[in-house]
Design goal:
The chain is of the alpha/beta class. Helix content is 33%, strand content 24%. It binds zinc ion (ZN).
């Protein structure tokens, strides 16, 4: 700690690395500190899902010294960070402003509590356990990808979709569901972010519904045709935004510093339209 009792970037990075060890991340992932002066002082943190120009604007506006992001800025290798590239501009702006950047991605998904715990809690699920228990360095401790939980009261699929849409942060895309609208939903598997790689795990778990983001026509159709649980497809950003409250509260408690959570909707989908003659709305 510095003489002002404020933590340095290194102090916060070390604490984040203990809560979300980097070796808990998937092998393809790139997590941890991205840029910033480790000796810089941190008085204010901004937590975001995506480090994009809009959230960089927000960080600068609120005077953040550190951005904690869920998605890596540089997941794929780059050969240039010239300021005429999208990511290069972000990097130049952050370094010029003295703002550090840290990413906790699949290591935060795997952690307990992790990204899907926050999503499940937001949806009113309890008695949580991993959908895909962790192996290797992260094994044990209730860690793993996705969560399975139980609703306090069973709902129809249509009613659960309505509930999810009301409980999750508002987005243009909203929530869409697949399956019998009147089917009873009590046990639910969830996965923050893209979840189609866990369709078979959700089916094997025997849950009534599986909620995640970025589902596609063929995997979803094949899953339902095979007798798998009902599906709910939500906006990617909305599925991960609840975790920001968790990591933000923990950072505030740990360091006694100001922490802000971004509500800038970084979901790329900004318009939702339905043909007015479409009448698939079921009665509940
Ligand atoms: Zn994600």
């Amino acid at each position: 700690m510095t003489d002002s009792a404020l933590p340095t970037v290194r102090d916060v990075v070390d604490a984040l690395d203990r809560r979300y060890p980097r070796d808990w991340a998937e092998e393809w992932d790139r997590v941890g500190p991205v840029l910033g002066d480790f000796d810089g002082v941190v008085s204010r943190v901004l937590c975001v899902v995506d480090c994009v120009p809009e959230t960089v604007d927000e960080a600068l506006a609120v005077g953040a010294d550190l951005i904690v992001a869920h998605h890596p800025l540089l997941l794929k290798p780059v050969s240039s960070i010239a300021p005429d590239t999208f990511k290069g501009r972000i990097i130049h702006r952050l370094i010029r402003a003295g703002v550090a950047l840290y990413s906790a991605h699949t290591n935060a998904d795997t952690a307990n509590p992790g990204v899907s715990d926050a999503l499940a809690a937001r949806l009113g699920l309890s008695d949580l356990r991993p959908l895909v228990p962790a192996t290797g360095a992260a094994a044990g401790g209730g860690r793993g990808l996705g969560r399975i939980g139980t609703l306090a009261e069973p709902l129809s699929l249509a009613a659960f979709a309505e509930s999810a849409a009301g409980r999750l942060p508002a987005t243009a895309a909203g929530v869409r569901a697949a399956g019998d609208p009147r089917g009873t939903i009590r046990t639910v598997a969830v996965c923050g972010g893209a979840g189609d790689s866990f369709l078979s795990a959700a089916a094997a778990a025997g849950v009534d519904a599986y909620l995640c983001a970025d589902l596609r026509h063929h995997p979803a159709g094949d899953h339902l045709a095979g007798g798998g649980p009902a599906l709910l497809d939500v906006a990617h950003w909305a599925s991960e935004r609840p975790w920001l409250d968790d990591v933000g509260a923990w950072l505030g408690d740990t360091f006694g510093i100001a922490v802000q959570v971004s509500d800038v909707d970084t979901d790329p989908w900004t318009v939702h339209a339905a043909n007015p003659t479409t009448s698939k709305e079921p009665s509940q």
